[in-house]
Write a structure and sequence with these properties.
Blueprint: E1 19-20, E2 23-24, E3 30-40, E4 44-49, E5 52-66, E6 71-83, E7 88-99, E8 104-114, H1 117-124, E9 137-144, E10 158-165, E11 168-176
Antiparallel strand pairs: 1-2, 3-5, 3-11, 4-5, 5-6, 6-7, 7-8, 8-9, 9-10, 10-11
Length: about 180
């Protein structure tokens, strides 16, 4: 007797990992929202502590350019990076930006930068920079504002990739659909 149950021919059974209660799963899609350039002050090296080497770098200047958000980085800001023994820096940045039409937006992002030879050299040499694929450099920006024109930022998830430039850092920020 031949088994004719649902598992008899596993080749015809769909991969359940690709389905949920509503049907086939869709991959997340990303849409480029803005590019952020951040100027950095000379870092303050706190030194090795129980969690790694703490380095604090002040944010001095910067711009944000996109189809819906354009502005300048203003006020105090910094990266409280923690460098681990694995060669990765845990980025922890907070800053503010003022849009070209006067809205103030608080920005916070955490992430990872691979401190390989290329990234480390570029961070130490103001004339050097990296390209996007020279290092793993990813963050998850969060935006917060009370301005109604930008309230959509409060309810949107973002991811970014970064690189070292001759005047600081550059991020391509993508909206998660």
């Amino acid at each position: 007797m031949t088994d004719s149950g649902p598992m008899a021919d596993t080749k015809s059974v769909p991969d359940t990992a690709a389905f949920d209660a509503d049907g086939p799963r869709r991959a997340l899609s990303l849409t480029h929202e803005l590019t952020m350039r951040v100027g950095l002050a000379r870092p303050h090296i706190i030194g090795a502590g129980p969690l790694g080497v703490r380095v604090v770098g002040g944010v001095t200047t910067g711009t944000v350019r996109g189809t819906r958000v354009n502005g300048t980085i203003v006020g105090p800001g910094a990266d409280w990076m923690l460098i681990g023994p694995d060669g990765y820096g845990r980025v922890d940045v907070r800053l503010q930006l003022e849009t070209d039409d006067g809205a103030v937006i608080y920005v916070r992002y955490e992430g990872l930068i691979e401190l390989n030879a290329k990234a480390s050299a570029a961070l130490m040499d103001p004339a050097a920079e990296t390209v996007w694929d020279d290092q793993y450099f990813r963050t998850a920006p969060r935006f917060e504002t009370g301005d109604e024109g930008y309230a959509w930022l409060n309810q949107t998830a973002f991811v970014a990739r970064g690189r070292v430039t001759t005047d600081g850092l550059e991020y391509e920020v993508f909206r998660v659909e």
